[in-house]
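Journal club prep — side note

Before the paper discussion, L.F. wants everyone to see what a predicted structure for a comparable chain looks like in token form. Sequence:
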Amino acid sequence: MADQALLEPTGGSRAGNRALSVMDQIRESVLNGSVAAGERLNEVRLSRTLAVSRTPVRAALQALAGEGLLDYAPNRGFTVREFPLDAIVDAYEIRASLEGVAARFAAERGLSPDEKATIERSLRDGDRLLERGSFETGDLTIYRDINGDFHDTLLAAARNRMLAEMIRICHHVPVSSSRNIVAFEHRDVRRRHDDHHRIYEAIIAREPWRAEMLMREHVASVKASLVKSLTEGSRDNDADPTSAGQLPVK
């Protein structure tokens, strides 16, 4: 059930904070594919699962519908919006350009000590996770966070709020977020993690145009893998691209 796929509740002392926490948890579950497209979100069950009253749950669902992640229909309530493949591809194409610009800005403006430490930690953690040569249960979930930390930190290093907002809009299309792993074969994840090393090396070397090119190619390769995976899965299983289960590492 959708409510069972959500993250554990984080609590909060004020109603506004509770609503924000609930909204963040539901949004993350939709964006990372834990809750399938077309699935109904039951307000009562969500309130029990997240250990909050129905008021912050209702506020969160309404806000997420306003973001375009959920649909609302009388007598049916809120369901996860279904995005066609071309909308997902559109988001990836824009992301490739925007994140390329973010990498260029990061190379031009330089990384703070904290940003450098975070990126280097994500690279080390990824190397350790991938050195075994195969995945164990839970490894993809761990790498999802490693991957997200790398991209989020580079975006912060770009120091451009409008750019960050535009990328955030792209991330609101399910499957197109940097928190979604778009390659579940070990060799694919290894190749994409190696991309991270090369992008970081270009940024540290203060080579902005090389950093931009590498990031564009990185995201574009994920898009290509995603299209291949989803179209083949759709042919084999007649599956909805946005609910194909395990999805291709950005």
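L.F.'s comment for the group: The longest strand covers residues 70-73. Keep this in mind when we get to the figures.
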